[in-house]
């Protein structure tokens, strides 16, 4: 047990180093978290702490968290695209990874949007692997991550300014509502994405038809 206490203490010190760097430390922590290094709730806690202690920096801190998350997610997505199906197979052979892969095939980028949005701990790495290995368009992937993280981190910054350290108690007390809002927003975001993709394809189809005529 002693070694686990030592590891936990070292991990807290590691996170505190980033906290001492202000919003830019939050950016770096968000990069690591989204790149696949598990820092459970670390970015959220740090953002709420900044917002509570320095309300004037809340929005800038949220922007740093969003930027870091996009960079980290893009890194993971690029690795998956390069590795393709062989890389993905290592993470979906059984258990949770296999289920998440099936959900991605059924629901697409909704499985990326919801965990990227929700402050509740939901798996994100495997859906990003799926999106990359199955060669989802860069624009589509980045749009979904940006939309989800912007909503999440600006909302946490606002709640941190309002409720301070009680923010997570508030979210826990309304967990079902938070999950339903995440689902609804995910459907709206992906629906918007599909609409944009159809709109992009329409001019190309019209040009092709004109050439054939």
Number of helices: 10
From the alpha-carbon coordinates, what is the Rg to the nearest angstrom?
Answer: 19 Å
SSE topology string: HHHHHHHHHH
The shape, in one word, is globular
Helical residues, percent: over 70%
The total count of strands amounts to: 0
Largest sheet: none
Strand content: under 5%
Low-confidence stretches: 203-208
Termini, distance in Å? 76 Å
Instruction: Give the number of domains.
Output: 1
Instruction: Indicate the structural class.
Output: mainly alpha
Would you tell me the overall average pLDDT? Answer: 77
Structural overview:
This protein has 213 residues and is mainly α. The protein has one domain (2-197). Helices cover 82% and strands 0% of the residues. It contains ten helices and no strands. The chain has helices spanning 2-19, 23-34, 42-53, 58-89, 95-107, 110-117, 125-133, 138-163, 167-173, 175-212. The longest helix is centred in the C-terminal third of the chain and has 38 residues, at 175-212. Mean pLDDT is 77; it is low at 203-208.
